[in-house]
Every structure is written in structure tokens, then in C-alpha cells.
Amino acid sequence: MDDLMYLKSGTDIRGSAFSTDGKPADLTAERLQSITWAFANHLERKIGKYEDLKVAIGYDPRISSISIKYVVENVLLAMGYKVYDCGLSSTPSMFMSIINFDVDAAIEITASHLPMNMNGLKFFTREGGFSGDDIKAILTRASTKVWTKGDFRGATEKLNNMAKYCEDLREMIKKGVNAPDYEQPLKGLKIVVDPSNGVGEFYITDVLNPLGADTSGSIAVHPDGRFPTHQPNPENKAAMDLISEATKNANGDLGIIFDTDCDRSACVDSEGEPINRNKLVALASYIALESYPNGIIVTDSVTSDGLTEFIEQELGGIHRRFKRGYKNVIDEAKRLTFEEGNVAPLAIETSGHAAFKDNYYLDDGAYLATQIVILTASLRKQGKALGDILNKLKSPLEEKEIRIKITEENFVTYGNSVLEDFKEFSDNTKGIERVKLNFEGVKVNFDKKKGDGWLLMRLSLHEPLLVVNCESNSIGGTEKMLESLKEFLSEYKKLNINF
């Protein structure tokens, strides 16, 4: 069996599901069989259960998802597992199947926002999503053995997991809004939804519409794994422009956009103003800190200084910038809460992954959207809107991200040596001050003359890249900071510094 470690993508397994541009598929039936077998073996050891195991399987609408599902479920059936077919499902709902139906584990077949030819597997137990180390163990084991087909021991059973998941979201809105018409709390509210042709049509048909919301004007509604409308990614500018335009055209009170599998979302206010990245973090922080005053908001490392000021001075919370990677952010919030005795009510990445303490620290785009719907309805009663909450959030005048390719084969060692040298450079350069309390890469502040802002350089989680994020409070500031960086990097011949 060949080495399958290249299929690791953070805490997921991802690869091409069919041949494109003359390149063979990564997720062949043979490889999927070995991966499923390795998952089952790892699961048994992880939860300490070796008999009568139950696994729920769901999938996104990619054209390869159902064929992958058949391979996975047939291996599990042959191993004696009880397998539940949840059909078209969001990723967060698959974790909730463990809570609601007492299964041992769940699998979602998805590749999130990636192109249509890609697909993958996400795994859950009651403790949450699998870690990067879990994925390494599975792929290492799968690389050692070609799975040999066993005897089938039954058939899958249908599990209407999404119905229960949607019922819980509806109840959450009813209780949260607490309208005089308790069963129709969203009557008179116009909400435009963009599911990105992914799983999220359910949020219109099974959550908002039954509660009286007007969802006319929604776009990219029907599941279509070719993603014909736009890239299924709330960080994508073209996608955000489309939901903004649709919300304005419909005179909507709120616009909501999901990624393919609904573990991420973003929104648009009644003026068509996009609320994603730092603005989304600010809005989610407002919601979380209402229930947990003085709580710690854990974010990734590239959030703005204005956001820190907003969380700490306007909302009374504590902002902890941590590392990129939604699992890193979630794990840090859990550590602060369960090990240090603090309360971190929210872990959130600028990408839109938001995990609330009150929701099992599950990154759930529909849960976040539901919290925003409740807030929108509550503000409307007071004659206010989402923009009234965010008007004190300061935004940088300039912000930029660049990616510097590392051509050295051992890119991790090379990249880390560059970062160590950058520490020394910043410590000995006038007008640049290194931020000492920093959990990822090297972050530096530039004085007004040198750029009037900050710059963070870090090694990519998955690729041979040094990723640089910077923001400035002055026009032309990012260019000044990047010129200083380019001067420093010019001696490193294994870096492509054409920026």
C-alpha cells in the first residue's frame, strides 16, 4: 500500500475524488477501504469499545459523495458495525447525531469549500472532531495494509438526524426571541439565505420558513455539487458581494451565507454591509459575552487591533489571540475553561469557524446564524440593527496577506530558521518592536514612520509557505512594512519574494 499521509488536511482527510487534468484520483475505492478499516481500528482503541459499535454517516452534495458513502458503509458493515445513513447532512449535525441518538461515532463526507473534484472525510466522537494526531494514526495504519473484504453483516438503517437538528434550532429561536406569537417568532422578518448550493437549503425550508420568516430572494439555494453560482466560501469576496446584492435587492433585514457543509457562516446587515472576518468575530463576541461577562474570546492570530479594543473596552471581555487552525482555537478555549478554570465562551477563526461553549465547542455555522437571527429579531423590537452594535469597531485603513513560497525540500526547518532570524532582526531594528506574548510565528509592531501597524509572519499549517498578514492605520503603511520585510528576506535564496 502506498503512503497516504499526503491526504491529511489538518484534522480532515481530503483528496481528489475523480481524475482531473490527467491526474489520477486520490480517493480510490481501494484507498477508501483501507482508510475506513484504519478508522474503525483507531476508533475502537480511542473509545475503548470493541463490540456493537454504531456509526452515523452523512454527506454533502458533491457528485462523488454517494459513491464514497457506499464504500465506507460497506467496509463498516463487513466489520460488524451498525451503520446509520443520515443522507444529505451538515457537518455539525453529524456531531449532534452522537448526542441525540447515542451512536459511537459519526462521519461526514465533505471537502468544505474546495473545488467540486475534491472530497474527504471528517470524523467525530462524543469528545468532538478527531485531532491531527488521530488523522496521522489512521493514515499511517491505512498505508500499511490493503483491506481485505469480509462478510457483510446486515444493511444500513436510515436515520433522520437532520429533522432533530432542525427542530432544536427552531426551539432555540422560539425561546431566544420569545415573541408574543411564540410559534411564529420571525413573522415580518425578511432573511435572505445563500447556502452556496451546498447542504444549507434546510436552514430555509426547515428552520426559518416554519417560524414565519420571509426568505424570498434567497440565492444558490438548491444542493448542487458542481457549485454553479459561486465558490462556496464565506471568505470569498465574490460570494459575499452576491449575498450583499441579494439582501439589498430583497430589502432584507438580514442576509446569511454558508459554506458547503454549514460549519461556517457569515452575514450581511440590512444595508448590505458584509459581516465576516473581524466584524463577524466582533458580533459573535457580543453574543457570547452577553451570557458570560468578562469571558475570554479565543481567536486566530490574524485578528485586528481594533477587534481587541472592541472586545476588551466596549464589551468587557478578554481577547486571546492564538494560532491559525479552527481546532487549535477550539482546543485552547477548552483548555482555558476546563483546565485553568477560566470561562472562554467562544472560540472563533476569521474564516468563520465559530464554536460556542454552550454548543459543545462545536464549530457550527447554523448555530452561529441562529444566534444572529435571534439578535436581529431582538434588536428590531428596539428599533435597532446589527450595525448599531458594530459601529464602535475600528477597522485598519489597510490590510494585506501575502504568501511566500519556500523552495527548499525541508521547508519546515528552513521556514522556522527564517522566523528565528526575523526575531533577531526585529529585536535589533529601530522602529520595530517584537510582540512577546505571541503563540504563532513572529509578530512585530511598526512605529508610525515605518508603517504604523503590525505584521505577522508564520509558517503555513499545510504548505511550503511563509504567510504574512499585516494591517496599518495609515495609507501606504502596509507597503512600508512589506518593504522592510523584503529587505530582510532578500538574503534567503530559497524564498520567492516577488511581492
Break the fold down into its secondary structure elements and pairings:
Blueprint: E1 8-9, E2 12-16, H1 29-47, E3 54-59, H2 65-78, E4 82-88, H3 91-101, E5 105-109, E6 118-125, E7 128-129, H4 132-142, E8 157-158, H5 161-177, E9 191-194, H6 201-208, H7 237-249, E10 254-258, E11 265-268, E12 274-275, H8 278-291, E13 296-299, H9 305-314, E14 318-321, H10 326-339, E15 346-348, E16 354-356, E17 362-363, H11 365-381, H12 386-390, E18 398-406, H13 411-427, E19 432-434, E20 442-446, E21 453-459, E22 465-472, H14 477-489, E23 495-496
Parallel strand pairs: 3-4, 3-5, 4-8, 9-10, 13-14, 13-15
Antiparallel strand pairs: 1-2, 2-6, 5-6, 6-7, 10-11, 11-12, 15-16, 16-17, 18-22, 18-23, 19-20, 20-21, 21-22
Structural descriptors:
499 residues; alpha+beta; 14 helices; 20% strand
Please describe what this structure looks like.
The chain contains 14 helices and 23 strands. The chain has 499 residues and is an alpha+beta fold. Strands 1, 2, 3, 4, 5, 6, 7 and 8 form an eight-stranded mixed β-sheet that branches. Strands 19-20-21-22-18-23 form a six-stranded antiparallel β-sheet, covered by helices on one side. β11 (265-268) and β12 form a beta hairpin. It starts with 7 loop residues before the first strand and ends with a strand.
